[in-house]
Structure formats: structure tokens, C-alpha cells
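Morning F.,

Quick status update on the modeling queue. The single chain you submitted on Monday has been processed. Sequence for confirmation:
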Amino acid sequence: MSKAPTRNPLAADDGRPTVQELQGDGVFAQAARRWWLREKAVKFNPDVLRKEFYEVLENQSFGLKSLLILENLQFLEKFLWPNFSEDASYVHVILIALMINVKRRENLPIWGSIGLTGVEHLESPASHFSILFRRVLHMCLDQSLQLSIRLHLLSFIVTAFQSLDSALVRKECAPLVSIAIWHNLSSEEIRNAQLDAYPQSRKAWRASGKRFDAADDEAKVRLQFERGWLYSMILDFLNLMYKPIGMGEDPKQVSLYCERFIELLIDLESQLPTRRYVNFLLKDLHVLTAIKLSPLYSSSDDGLIRDLHGMLEHFVYFSIDDITGMQLSQEEYRQSHNARLAKLQRIAFRDFKDKLLILALANYGSLGQPSDLSGHLADLTDGEMVQLCQRLGLRTSYPKSVIFGIDRAFLTDAVISVHLRRKTFQEQTKSMSVLPNETTLFDESFVRDGFYDGTRPLAIPKLNLQYLTVGDFLWRSFVLYRHETYYGIRQSIEDSLKKMTPKIKYPSMETSFTGFSKMALQINRPSILEVLPPKVGEEHPAAVRAEVSLELGRVSADVLRDWESLLTGDVVFLLAVKGTDEGDKMITNGGSDKVNPAEKYGIKYLRAAEVVSVMDSQGRHIGTGENKVKSSRGQVKLHLKLDAQMYQIDSDNVKAGKPDIYDSVNVIIRRKGRENNFKPVLESIQDLTQTDVLMPTWLEDVFLGYGDPAGATNLPNTPQKVDFRDTFLNWQHVLESFPDMTIESEGEVDTSNGPPFVISQKAPVATKPSKKRRREQMDETADVNSLGVSTYHLPNMGPYPIDQPKMNSTRFTPTQIRAIRSGTNPGLTVIVGPPGTGKTDVATQIISNIYHNFPNQRTLLIAHSNQALNQLFEKITALDIDQRHLLRLGHGEDGLNTLHNYSKQGRVESFMDNRARLLAEVDRLAACLGAPGAHGDSCETAGYFHQVYVPSAWNKYKTAIEEAGDSVTVEQIRDTYPFATYFSNTPAPMFPADLTVDSALEIAQGGYRHISKIFSELEDIRPFELLRTPRDRQNYLLKKEARIIAMTSTHAAMRRQDIAKLGFHYDNIIMEEAAQITEIETIIPLALQKPVDGELPLQRVILCGDHLQNSPILQNIHLKQYTSLDQSLFARLVRLGVPVISLDQQGRARPSIANLYSWRYDNLSTLRALSSQPEFQRPNAGFAHDFQFINVGDYKGAGEIEPQKHFVQNLGEAEYAVAVYMYMRLLDYPANKITILTPYGGQRALIRDVLERRCKGNPVFGLPKVMTVDKYQGEQNDYVILSLVRTKRMGYLRDIRRMTVAFSRARLGLYVLGRREVFESCLELREAFKRLLEKGDGRLELTVGEMYGAERTEEAQKVVMEGVEHLGKYVYEMTQEKVKALQARL
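C-alpha cells below.
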């Protein structure tokens, strides 16, 4: 095992600038106040940049700490960019590039800082950026600049190519990778051959030539520079790779530059628009061979360049047609490879028959192996080798500017590289292990990303704006998710071993553990119970079962319960740990970060295993149910399924004379359940990579990021007429919902009646064409803005209250109606729902409309969290949807606040309960009809009864009514009605005296519908009667009966294979919280079913979310920084320009509170009805303001502290938050209406501790809900107390998305505790805190004499709290008075 990279001190949060550094007497802080952080503008002096900034930074080697200080001081936004012009010095350009790079490293908004997203302080942002970009391009090629400077400029280019969603950035980058770069190919013949193969490329080539010929001299110079820039950069890069050490450049800088340049090439290769022409140029230049044979490749200390080379090779030879963008199947890829080998054999036989005859006759399998092909080529002379390469169309020389030549070894490797049989991405993924061992878990490539600090790239793929193919996306996701998983496992193992403290005992040299971890136990050697023979075609055992005994007699009851609660399928880790002696510094807390974690903690071996069962010492299973015991009493036996492939390797090693690793296993480690579901998720992704059809054709191009962004939103199969049922409350609501459209009534529409309403799209009428094309398009679509509306009467479904349909009562806004209409239609719908805008209500109404309009379709509901899914599901149960068609999968069903159980087991039990109830109704009906026999014995007998008796009785009644004709009366209808006796138990008489004949006929028909529904339900229940096992019944329920199925994205990922194997089918998918779900977790639910006729039958994909709130949360923040693994499909679609519907009226918070975050959204306003509600009209009792920022100073001489890494606390704010809560309770605010929020888990724990001391057990106060901001997204409460914690530096609170979540949780009152100077100067938070600081002066302002729910009088007095001690004393005095008052009552 190699040593881990050195951890950069700034990789930890303590490297960020503190408030003191930004506001103190530092060089840059003083310069900022002197030049831009002042009220009166100062004339710009270019010399200042060099003397006061550039030279200082240069002397510090452009240290990250200084750059971060300047970035926080808004150096770019307020000084560099406003003063940038065409005449700017190269120093000015370099400093801008440095600031852009540091913003990219910190995951901050980049291009908005220089006006590319609508910032007003630029007169001409487009031209300014173009000038800047051109200057950077030229400086990248300027050999007179230091390599370290060119490295920073190169990083700027990398950032630009990662930001192609910006139109201006894309405009500047596109010419650098256009077809014009093919002017740099080695020969015209090679270029023409490629152009001939692709007619569309020939067309693009001609267009490029015409554009050059039509340009003036200045433009031609620019075009020549553009088409030669990448070529020149590659040659410069290759020279550096081969430059001998000591020739003027710092070897470290050379290595850093080359690593960064390979990253650029990987980025270019990994997106089709940049790859299309670049890939052929890289192959022509033999870039892969040149890197592989360079001195730097072999001398790389930690192997990063080698790993980057492997990543570049993967993309260069990815199985895709570069020009068409079509993914090659494994068979097509094999045929393409064979075609290259066939060409080689033809040339060998024709031109080198004497020496290469064996090669010409060899099989393809051997020629695809490097050793075999190299052996064949060894017989050729150097000259013949050159001739062979020329005939193969391979470059045989570089320009004179290249410092190394192409020799025989180079050409041989180039030929091998072209003809090598490489694994496809499917084969690569299949060969990667899911379960880790000591080699993979602590491999350099995995450990490296845990130490990422931004100075060097990582040899792992990124999630880009676009992907090559769906398979490419899945391969990247598998690699990255595996990295994320292994990072979490490493952290868990390191934490457990650090607490266990393994030591060496003398003189036995055995390992002892002097510490304790509740997640790990010392064990003896596992006992191998069973080794099943291999399956056909495999070499490793089919399964290996082992037993591990756990001694838990001395642990606490909580720890014992946790170990006994291990579930089947949970992964545990068996380790062989060798302790170190007291003198070994590697095991101490102050040990070197350079040491690999496996060496640091003495990990010799590591094996993963799955839990099969948990038993006590007598072999009895632990748990609830029959034949199970509740507790083991401290003696636990775990039956495990070992990793069979690793077991085979271990067995082979033992046979070869190596030690048996299981003899040395002495530790077992478990992980928390929510962190330990990685295996089925990775297996699901791995399985998907082997599948050809992963998503519907209509969605694929939009997902990949190509073609028309609106291509998936307006599908040709959109129905012309849709029944919106209860979406609209009345006719006036219909008119209000389409303000820009003409509403035409179809048929007789009674505008005084309510729903249902049917909306039909009016066909466009031909219009006279106008002269201008834009006007033509407007005229052609003008008549489409006309809707037809019709209505009908809902049929009477029966006389019982249960027969009455449930009706929607929400008055949807016009934008919500647009979202509902879009979601009801086929295709992709993306709904942006700012806080409180009712996106969940919109989603439920879409579900209802689909359910009623398309009764044969099934809908899948997905959410990130159980809480969000349950909120959505609870609203669905309130709609007019038959409960037997609803199903909730996963453990989160326990949190549903509903009368019925919607789990698989609960639904089956409900069907069986309904069976008994309905069969009893059949017996009653049979008695009423005088039909003898046991008709209610089963669903089958009930069906026979229905066929024989019910229709005949109904037809006899209908005949009598028809014979009576127009003279029929209500009395005749009532007297001849055959089911009158059956309906004698209705709450009210079925046929009241004042009925009309038509009403009576409809009531009679309703009774028949009620009876028909009984037998229809029994017919649906009949399969459950026939199926005997619970599993079969549950599977049938999922496959056939349920029409609306809900599960979390995690459950979908974990159970994908099981669900797909059942033949599960669905037509629509709706995702709540879509912006919080990673891309791969979004895609997996699309593939829970098998294709039908080579196509996934999905008709609708509806994504609801808010990309301006929190993104998906990762453990490994380094992966987030470098790879964008936290990217959601929702946010990427927004970046791609896919049409979205942004809900624009919030109904959650007071307008004053909503104003704190409404500026983040376009035209977000407040519903007018909100202001009329009494709770929104009354001020908050006891508070002078609806919201206020309270500046909390140091408490007991301290502000924020960090007792553990990332465990940030602030005692002053904790005491203040609890004091505010106690004050509110003393005013009779309900405890359940108050939530205390904080961004940090450490502060949450501290606040709970303070609450325990101050409030627990006291009925006057009770306890509020205390949550972290991230966990509280999607929830709300009337009053929120927010503790921001930070007093030294911003930390991750600089992310405005997190602050948006925090500010938007409160409905009526928001009280924010923090340190003013930390937050008010932050650029990203400036607008939010500008609004927040409008109320008060930073001291909490209270009003005296008010109680919760009372109206405020004009005489109300205000009192100001000077600090936490003052408030604490004030609350204490109030508490004493409250206690005296209570005692007086007693």
C-alpha cells in the first residue's frame, strides 16, 4: 500500500478566512478598504494591481489562503472586473483568472460575478468576456510566462469548458474544438478518408472553409489562431512531458501542469460537442502513446498521471460513434475492432507477406493482445515499421518544435494502441467489485479523493452538463457512487479503530484493544459453515456461509439492542488488525496525515460479509414473531454470507502456502442502517450498465443534453380533450386560470354549476400569412390559445355517504393550473416550486387527473425522504381515489398519518377484510332478492350469484319503467325497484317525497352502480382468495392491483432488481423533491420495469423540486467539489434550458418573511387570500417584529468552538435560542408551533442539552422540535428560531441555497441568531441579510403585556434585550411570576 497524499491545510474549513482577517489590518484587507470597500469611488490605477496585489501574491506563490481572502473581499466583483478593458495588462488578466479559479474551487457562482448572468454593473459583458477569453488563450501559449502562471490560466480554460451552459462561454469555447482543428491532421488523405465516411462532416468542413474564405484579414488571423490553439497546446504539453529535469522548469510545476492538461483533454473527450472533432485529432497525434512512453509517466510518485492516462484512454476509445453520437452495442464495438484488425491483416498480407504472414493468418483474439501483436511486428525493420504505419493511416512524425522523435518503440506502441482489444464500459463495470477489501478500499485512487484540495485533479469521471450516452452516464455514476461509498466505509472503519485503540501486548506480541467503540467488537476466528459448489460457468463458490460469535455481556443495553437489530442483507466488515506499540506515533492523534489509513491503524486484511441471520447462543432467531426470542442476553451468533470471489482468492492463496487470513480476523465492524445500503444500490447501477434500453426514446436526447430542450415536452400523442374533474372549483375559476387564452363553451354549460370541467384544445385555424417569418409563426399559433370547455353531471354512485366523491377544495392559481395541465399531458414536465407555492398540491392533482382520465395506467411516486413521500401520499388519500389502488413500499410507511395501512401487508389484509365485508353484503342482497343458497361463501360463488340474479332483476325493473313510458311516476319507480329492501339501511330515505322522476331514475341507477361495484371489487379480490402465501398475494398486488405506487428513491435503488423481476409495469413517474435526488437515484426509478418491444412504456415523467434550495447531500465533499456528484437531474435540466413551470404565488409565510427569499425567484408573490387570515393579520405577541436578526456576542468569552471535526457549537446562541423559546412558552405559545433550527449537528446537540437542563420535566415549557436546516427542508412551522452558530468564518453557510431553506421554514415569525459582521458582508448573502437587517439594531426587541393570540394595543411598550444574560434574567423573572400565579390558583 502506498502512502496517501499530503492533506492540504486549507482542505479543512479552518483554512477559510476569518472575520478578523477580512476586517483587520492585513495587507489585502487594508488595500480593499483603500480601493473599493469605500463609499467614494477611487480612480483605477493599473500599477496598483502589480504592486499591491500581484507582487504580494507572487511572493506567496499565489497561496490559496491569500486568494480566498481576496475572493471574500469581492476583489473580482468590485475591483478587477469593473476596471477591465481591452487595454488591461497581463497582470490584470492573470488576477481575474486566479479569482475565477478560486470561485470554481469553492463551488461558488462564477460567471455571474463578471456579468454573464445579468449583473448590471457592466456596460458590455459579452465583449468584455470575449476580450478576456482571447487574452487568456494567447497567454496560455506564451512561453515567456512562468509555467506556474500558465497553469493558472489553463485552470481557467478547464473551468470555461465545464461551463458550457453559459451561452457566452460556449460561444468562445466552440471555435476551439470545431471541425477546423482537422487542418492539423497529419495528412490530407487521412482527413479526406474521415470526411468521406461521414457526409455530414464533409458539409461542416465546407461551411468552415467558406467562412474562412469570406473573412477579412483580421478575421482570418483569428480563425487560424482558433483552429491551431488546441494543436499548439497539445504539442507544448508533450514537450513538457518529455523535457529533461533541470532544464529551467520546476519539476513539480511541470507535473501539476501536465496533470491539469490531461484533465482538460478528458473534459473535452467526455462531452459530445467538444469530443466530435477533438477525438480524431488526439488519435492522430498519438497522445495516449506519447503520454505512456514519457519520462513523467513512469516517474510519477503517486501514480496520478498514470491514472489520468487510463481515464483519458477510456474516453478516447469509448464505444460511441463520435460524429453521429450513437452508442455502439457490444456487438457493434466488437465488429468495429475486428474491422481494424482485418485492415491490418490485409495490409500485412499484401505488403509484408514475407514477414507478417503469420499475423495475416492469426485469429482476432490473439491480435488484440499486446504481447502477441508486438511479437508479430518484431520482424519488421525500422523502415518497414514506418511504411506499415503510413499504410494504416498513422502519423509517423511530429513537427520540428517537438523535442522528441517518433522511434520504433513509439510506432509499435501506436499500432498496438489502435488494435488493442479493450474492455467496453459494460465489461469494465461488471469486473469492478462492489464489496471492498483492504486493497480496493485503501487503494491510492480511492484514498486520493479524500485529500483533494483543488491543486491537482482527480483521476475519476465528472458529471457534466451533457453525457456521451446513457451507458456513459451509468458508468460514471457507478464509479463515483463507489468512491462515495468507499469513502464512507473508510471513515466508519477509521473512527471505530481509533476508538478501539489497538495495541501490541508484550511479550506475546498479540493485539489488544484498550478502547471501545459501539460500532465494533473484538471477535475470534469466524467459523466456515458451508461452501456451496460453483455455478455453471463460474469458478468461485456459489455461496460461503460463516458464523461469528459476539460477546455482548458487558455492553450497554442500547449497544446490545443495536447489534441484535442487524437485518438480513446488512453488510458488516471483518478485519485483521495488528496493533502498534506505545512508541509508534502513527497511531496517535497527532500522527502524520501522509500515512495510509490502513497502515495507520494496522489493518492487514479486510473482508465484507452480509448478515444472514442473528441468533442467540441456542441458535434461536432474535426478533418478534413465532419461534423467536426477544433478546440474546449478551450471547449473539451472526450467520454471515462471505464475499465468495474473495473467499476463492483466499483459498487459492492458502493452497499456495500463504497464511489463512481468517485465522487473523479479530474485529467486526458494523455501520448505521441508513449508511449501509450501498451494496444493492451499486448492484442496481452495475446491472443497468448491462442493459441497452434504459429510458424512453422521447426522453433520451433531452437527458443526454442534446437537441431541442423542449423536445420531450410537446409529444404528438397529447390528447385533445382532458377531463379535469375537480381541478377547477367553478366556472369563474376556469376563466381566471387561463388569463391569456380565449375560453369557449362547448355544448350547454351551466356557469352556475361547479365541476367537473372538460378542457379541449381548439384546432388552429388557417390564417393569411404575413411578410415576416416571426409574424407568421405568431399568426399560426394565435388560434391555438383558444380552449373549449364542457361539463357534465357526475353519475350517482349510490345512496351511502361513502359513495359520494371526494372533491378538491384548493383554488389553484393560473400557474399551478398550467403545471397540472402539463403534467396531465404526456411527456416531461419540470415544475419549480419555491417555498410554500403548493407543489405537493399540484402533484396530487396531477395524480388524480391521470387516475381518472387513464384508468388503465399506473403511476409511480418517488421522493427523496420518507417524510416528503408520506406528505404527498397523505394528500393523495384525501382525493377521490379508491384506496385499494394505493400502495406504499418501504419502511417509511409507519410514519403515515392515515386511517388505513398502505403497506403491502396492510393492503393484502385490507383486501381480505373487504372480502369478508363484501361477501356479507352479497348474502344480504341475496336474502333481499329471495335467492336461496350460500352465495357469500367465496368470491367465486358471489360471481355466480351476480350473473344469475342481479342483471335479471335490474333488466326486469328497466322493462317495467320503459313500458310505463312518459307516465311513469316516482311511486312506480320506488315500488318496482328490486333493491329497495337492500337499501333500507341508508342514512336517509333513498327516494324522498319531493323527488322528480329524472332524479328518482338517477338515484335508482346509482343504487345499481353501488351493487355493481361490490361485485367488481370482489372480482378484483378473487386472486387474493386463490393465492395462498402472503408473498404471492403481495407480489400480485404490486403487479396487477395497485395503480398508484409510492416509494423513496433509495428503496427504488435497493429493490430495483427484485421489482423488475416481478414484471412490474408503470406508465407514469412523479418525483417530489427532485432537486434533492442525485442523478443516478433519479434514473434508477425510470428502469424498474423491463422494456416492451424494445421500448420503455413510460408516458410521463414529472419532476417537482426547487434547485434554488439544497442539493443532494454527500459525505465526501471532495467528490462534490470536483465531480459534481451532488448534481441533480432536475438542476441539470434547468441549466440545459428545458422548459420549466415556476410556481409564482406562495401561501406559507407572511409577506414580510417571504420577502427575505422571494428575490431569489422570478415574480414570486403572496396569495391575496393569505392576508385575510386572522393569524397573518395579528403581530407576534411579545415581539416587536415579525422577523429579526439578533446579534449574539461572545458568551463567557467564547463564540463558535469545534470540539470535534465538523462538530461546530456556540453556547451563547444555544442559551439565547432556548431563552427565546422559554419566553414564548411563558406567553402561551404552543410548543408544537415552535421549531429551533441550526445548520450544524453539533449545535443541535448543544441546544438539546440546554433544553434538557432548562425545560425538561417542566410542564410550563415542554420541549420544541430541534432540527438541522438540511433535515428540515420540506417542513414548516409557525415560528422558527434559527441559530447560525458561526462567529469566525462563514463555512458552508455561504451557500445561499441553504440560507434560503432556513429562512423559508417559518410562517409567522422568524428570529435569527448570529454574528452580524460574519454574514452581512458576504456577496452571496448580501441581498438576504440586507432585508433581514431592516428590523431592529441587532438587539432583540420585545413588547410587554401581551399573550399569545391577543390583539396588540397602541399602548404596548417595547423593551430591548442587551444580550443573552439580560434575556435570561428577564425570562427567569417571568418564570417566577408565572409560578407564583399558578400557585395562587391552587
